[in-house]
Design brief:
485 residues; alpha/beta; 8-stranded mixed β-sheet; 4-stranded parallel β-sheet; 19 helices; globular
């Protein structure tokens, strides 16, 4: 059997939870017990716990069971105080990420989009809870009205199944003649070779993981933006799989809210090249929207979880006039120019009327070319694709209904589809290889043991300095960004 230790201090999105829930159900269908143990539960964590045979908590655990909310942050007032003026053009009304800089509250379109997404997540949530725990939507709503629970109250209301400390749960589950519960840790289990578990075949499916904001050349962890999906890194993995004669198909695992338009297109182009050689199946995780959809739509097939956030086919392009901030800091600039439009991208002033016209016209041309390509690859007319675009965000379930997605499911389903497209029988075992290989910066530094010497310190310094410099360049360059809401 399996024990899942849960806490609401996790960063799992809805789709990740849905995928783990599916895996839990498969273990249970195989006749094995799955127990959930948690020291703290909120609604999202409860959705995962509900898939288990039973839910156990210590007597002093935290339980937070409330309705859903979406909060948007708006920087307009702060930017005004700082003297920063945004020159932002968005395509179009539903592309509400731009509202962070241009509004103090949600627009009508932004609220509409968020409310229909909340309706979707609510429907899938209450349906799952009723199926797993027998709690109807009316009962779930009633329980949420109380918001927070003591563990014994949650037990009385049927939200959980027992109150035990971890050592007491071990004692309950151990085989009678054993001194203690025999367990294998997740880390130890991960180290098992797939072939020892019968998970290896003659043919190979390559799974390429691409996550984070899209921008820059190399994939890395950026000081400001967090995980970055670099176009050269991802394209290199795709080319490697394309040229690998042992790879029968590629699963492109995308988890990204978007990012730089050019980088997104370069990755998407490599996906298209690969799909001309062998099947490429996109597996969408929590978010594959905006630039995240841009890298995906040229694949052979798109598979998304029901709760994936996708679409957001729109665009934001901007520059920021920072002169007011410079004035407050006592910083001045002077200019000498030759030739027209030399200061168009200057952060020392707004666009002129002529510059704004050129800027927005070019933005529309670029976007319409992208939308035309989406329509062609998804078998739609331009008008049909446009009704799904202009920043509208959809769940994977809605995407399947409107044609942005081909199939629903997680990684397992994507591999099944890849096998089918590659002509591999459904019951034939395959070897699954993952790119890129896990290797962290400090693993590289410390390879071979020893202390952090002067050379290693210099490597770390250069790494941080170069990353900070690239972050600043990304923030200040006038490139189109395709950001999900």
């Amino acid at each position: 059997g399996v024990i899942i230790k849960l806490s609401y201090n996790n960063n799992l999105g809805w789709a990740m939870i849905e995928e783990i829930r599916t895996a839990v159900h498969k273990v249970r269908e195989a006749g094995k017990k799955v127990y959930g143990f948690s020291d703290s539960i909120n609604g999202r964590t409860y959705l995962l716990a509900a898939a288990c045979d039973s839910i156990w908590m210590p007597p002093t655990a935290y339980i937070d069971f409330r309705g859903f909310a979406v909060t948007t942050q708006h920087l307009k007032g702060a930017m005004e105080k700082l003297g920063i003026k945004p020159n932002v053009h968005k395509i179009k009304d539903y592309k509400s990420a731009a509202e962070m800089f241009t509004r103090s509250s949600m627009s009508k379109e932004s609220r509409e989009n968020k409310e229909w997404m909340l309706d979707e997540f609510w429907d899938m949530f209450v349906s799952a809870i009723e199926k797993d725990r027998g709690l109807t939507e009316e009962r779930v709503t009633e329980l949420m009205a109380r918001a927070v629970y003591m563990p014994e109250e949650a037990l009385e209301e049927g939200l959980i199944d027992g109150l035990v400390y971890w050592d007491e749960l071990e004692a309950k589950l151990k085989i009678e003649d054993d001194e203690k519960l025999r367990t294998v840790s997740q880390g130890r289990y991960e180290s098992e070779k797939p072939e020892k578990l019968g998970l290896k075949g003659k043919k190979t499916i390559v799974v390429i993981h691409a996550q984070g904001m899209i921008g820059g050349r190399k994939s890395k962890v950026d000081p400001l933006f967090g995980i970055l999906m670099g176009h050269e890194s991802v394209a290199a993995d795709l080319r490697r799989a394309r040229k690998d004669d042992d790879a029968a198909a590629i699963v492109f695992r995308v988890d990204s809210p978007g990012g730089e338009g050019l980088a997104s297109d370069l990755i998407g182009h490599e996906v298209e090249v690969c799909s001309g050689v062998k099947p490429v199946v996109v597996s969408m995780v929590d978010v594959a929207a905006s630039g995240g959809y841009h890298v995906a739509y040229r694949a052979t097939r798109i598979v998304a979880d029901r709760m994936t956030v996708t679409g957001s086919i729109g665009s934001i392009s901007a520059k920021f006039n920072v002169k007011g901030l410079y004035d407050k800091l006592g910083i001045t600039y002077d200019f000498a120019t030759k030739g027209p439009m030399a200061l168009m991208w200057s952060d020392y002033r707004d666009f002129t009327e002529e510059e704004w016209e050129i800027f927005t016209e070019n933005h529309w041309k670029s976007f319409n070319a992208w939308l035309k390509d989406v329509a062609e690859h998804r078998g739609m007319t331009f008008e049909e694709a446009e009704k799904l675009a202009h920043g509208r965000v959809w769940t994977g379930r809605q995407g399947k209904e409107n044609g942005l997605v081909d199939d629903l499911g997680g990684l397992d389903r994507a591999i099944e589809v890849a096998k089918e497209l590659a002509g591999i029988p459904a019951d034939e075992q395959v070897t699954v290889v993952h790119y890129p290989k896990k290797k962290e910066l400090f693993d590289i530094i410390f390879e071979g043991g020893g202390s952090l010497n002067a050379a290693a310190r210099w490597v770390v310094y250069r790494f941080i300095r170069d990353d900070l410099a690239e972050t600043w360049r990304m923030m200040t360059k006038q490139n189109m960004y395709l950001m999900a809401d």
